[in-house]
Structure to design on (248 residues):
């Protein structure tokens, strides 16, 4: 059963969403929040699988609430519902699963929820994969990557960089690109930090493939990596750590 919280300060909009979601099998609405502060507390207590959240809410807006929630529960699927499209970039910076513009496209809601149900059905498999990969990593052997289609094993030394692309995490290696629904935080917790470096909230790199670092915006630098056209970003703070830890 997919557990959902609706966060919307407009009672009429909450009612519309409830009516649509109640028509979808294997869905349970476990809570309704009227503001962002209430949503954050409710999420901690009820631990939903999905949150439908309006961007423009009192107390704490939807994007800020999502940032707080995602730090504590990176597996929750956050779906923004709003009358405006100008928050879209901010929404996807917190890894939103979808962004729905009012008035709602009912078929879009059905498709999005059913996709999440499919992903949730794979959770047992993913947890099994995680347990096995942790054991392998402890032995200094392989890194296991789980996707919808299969599980792939790569040598950690062959990983070039890891970053988020839309709703997935892409792992660039010397053998090709692999995708997974694991967050960067979850992946970084599984690996030896001496082998991979979290240089930016959106990037993890293998320091052995770093070729060039150049300024890119305010207090941010671009990293050119070997064996790929993909580049990474590093903050000024992380650059100082990089120099102290890896450079002579």
């Amino acid at each position: 059963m997919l557990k959902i919280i609706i966060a919307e300060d407009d009672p009429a909009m909450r009612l519309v969403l409830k009516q649509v979601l109640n028509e979808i099998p294997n869905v349970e609405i476990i809570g309704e929040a009227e503001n962002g502060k209430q949503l954050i507390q409710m999420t901690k207590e009820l631990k939903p699988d999905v949150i439908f959240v309006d961007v423009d809410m009192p107390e704490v807006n939807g994007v800020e609430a999502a940032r707080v929630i995602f730090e504590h529960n990176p597996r929750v699927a956050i779906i923004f519902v709003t009358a405006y499209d100008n928050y879209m970039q901010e929404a996807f910076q917190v890894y939103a699963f979808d962004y729905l513009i009012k008035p709602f496209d009912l078929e879009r809601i059905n498709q999005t929820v059913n996709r999440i149900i499919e992903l949730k059905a794979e959770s047992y498999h993913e947890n099994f994969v995680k347990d096995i990969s942790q054991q392998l990593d402890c032995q200094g052997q392989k890194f296991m990557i789980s996707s919808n289609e299969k599980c792939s094993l790569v040598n950690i030394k062959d990983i070039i960089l890891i970053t988020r692309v839309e709703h997935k995490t892409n792992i660039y290696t010397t053998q090709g690109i692999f995708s997974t629904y694991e967050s960067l935080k979850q992946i970084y917790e599984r690996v030896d930090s001496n082998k991979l470096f979290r240089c930016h909230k959106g990037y993890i790199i293998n320091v052995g493939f770093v070729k060039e670092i150049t300024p890119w915006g305010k207090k941010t630098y671009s990293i050119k990596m070997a064996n790929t056209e993909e580049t990474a970003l590093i903050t000024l703070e992380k650059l100082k750590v990089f120099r102290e830890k890896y450079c002579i």
